[in-house]
Write a structure and sequence with these properties.
The protein is of the alpha/beta class. Helices cover about 45% and strands about 15% of the residues. The chain has a six-stranded parallel beta sheet with strand order 1-8-5-4-2-3, with helices on both faces. A two-stranded antiparallel sheet has the order 6-7. A two-stranded antiparallel sheet has the order 9-10. Strand 6 and strand 7 form a beta hairpin. The longest helix has 19 residues. The N and C termini lie far apart (about 45 Å). Bound molecules: nicotinamide-adenine-dinucleotide. The site of nicotinamide-adenine-dinucleotide has 31 residues, from helix 2, helix 5, helix 6 and helix 7.
């Protein structure tokens, strides 16, 4: 059985944690086989330091899938399920997801569905997955071009946060992770947001402190509402429009938006919406928008994109029946869930978004 509540997920952080995780696997899990799921980049950059963990274990099988959001699909699941079957995985086998959020989302989903559930461990290797995707038990894949359409809640046995992994990420990937740190602060923690609002992304050196604080906030939220029946939706701030941008970009752009890049622009639009719907003050709205534009690339969209964007927004799982339900801000550091809105107000915000006066340097030059 996978862990039912996140409380029972073991956390290992810091450099020495590799040894502790090894002990945990040996003593507590005692797997008959270990499958390590990687993509070609984590296979190249992360497998070597990770070999300390697997040294001494027999029956290690490494599975490599193609990287990137465009591969978080049923076809990749089939590849992994086939590898598991081919190598005779049993209910005593363990899957280790060594990668970013794409790997932990798909690996958790595959583990939870194969033979009604194998145990799995997440070892997140991107900033985004260390602060967000690997924590909280949401697993899944994209389907028919819609983000996370298929999936289950399923909690890993353990999560290892190993700081040196993020050293091989490029700046775009790091910024993408920073967007989820900003989201957590804006949605849940005023003092954390105040601290971040005085920082510039380019000046951050102490990532570990930011990672630890973000995880601890997320854990508090997830433990209060593991299956997202209400309160946990605060963490979806920026994601309704963010997911629409991400799906749209995946379909139309040669170099699609990264998840965090889409979420950053989603937060920008949903900050505007918060000003109209949930009482976010004018000066707070302006401050957040300026901060997001200073730290993230602006994504250009045209009016012609609106019908398709609304199609994605309607598909978003946060909407019940035909109503738009958003998670919005009532003030910086405080998100409110189930905020009802309508197509006219969202259209107005998107129009304000496309009319923003943006410095050319902040524009997303690789699009269109
Ligand atoms: N389940 C959740 O709660 C949750 C939360 C947020 C995001 N997500 C999902 O996470 C995904 C995004 O995660 P991501 O940003 O980690 O993307 P990703 O897993 O696609 O990784 C981004 C890129 O970095 C590469 N990479 C990974 N680790 C590396 C390393 N250490 N050095 C060099 N390259 C490395 C990958 O191969 C990939 O090319 C999206 O699918 C999103 O929907 C899930």
């Amino acid at each position: 059985m996978n862990s039912i509540f996140p409380d029972s997920t073991q956390f290992f952080t810091g450099k020495k944690s590799i040894i502790l995780l090894k002990e945990f696997i040996k003593k507590e899990l005692q797997p008959d086989k270990i499958f390590i799921l990687t993509d070609e980049n984590t296979n190249k950059f992360c497998l070597k330091p990770f070999k300390k963990i697997i040294k001494g274990f027999d029956n290690i099988i490494i599975i490599i899938i193609a990287s990137g959001e465009q591969n978080k699909t049923l076809a990749s699941c089939e590849t992994i399920w086939s590898e598991l079957a081919h190598n005779k995985a049993t209910r005593k086998s363990l899957i280790i997801n060594l990668g970013g959020g794409m790997i932990s989302d798909i690996g958790g989903f595959v583990a939870s569905t194969y033979k009604r559930g194998l145990k799995y461990i997440n070892i997140p290797t991107t900033l985004l997955s260390q602060v967000d995707a690997s924590v909280g038990g949401k697993t899944g894949i994209d389907f028919k071009g819609v983000k996370n359409m298929l999936g289950v809640f399923s909690f890993p046995e353990a999560i290892l946060i190993y700081p040196p992994f993020i050293e091989t990420l490029d700046e775009r990937q790091k910024k993408s992770g920073y967007a989820e740190i900003i989201k957590t602060a804006l949605a849940c923690d005023k003092s954390f947001w105040q601290q971040l609002s005085e920082l510039d992304f380019n000046e951050i050196i102490d990532w570990q402190t930011l990672i630890n604080r973000t995880i601890s906030i997320k854990l508090q939220v997830v433990n209060a509402d593991p299956f997202e029946s209400g309160f946990r939706k605060v963490l979806n701030f920026g994601h309704t429009i963010g997911h629409a941008f991400e799906s749209y970009s995946m379909k139309h752009d040669n170099t699609p938006l990264l998840h965090g890049e889409a979420v950053a622009m989603g937060m920008l639009c949903e900050t505007m919406l918060s000003n109209k719907i949930s009482g976010l003050k004018n000066e707070e709205t302006k401050f957040i928008i300026d901060y997001l534009l200073k730290n993230f690339n602006y994504y250009s969209i045209k009016l012609e994109a609106f019908p398709e964007l609304f199609n994605y927004i309607f598909q978003d799982k946060k909407n019940e029946a035909d109503e738009f339900q958003f998670t919005l801000l009532s003030s910086p550091g405080r998100a409110v869930v189930n905020q009802k809105t309508n197509i006219e107000i969202v259209t107005q915000c998107l129009k304000e978004y496309i009319n923003l006066k943006v410095e050319p340097a902040s524009e997303n030059h690789f699009l269109f």
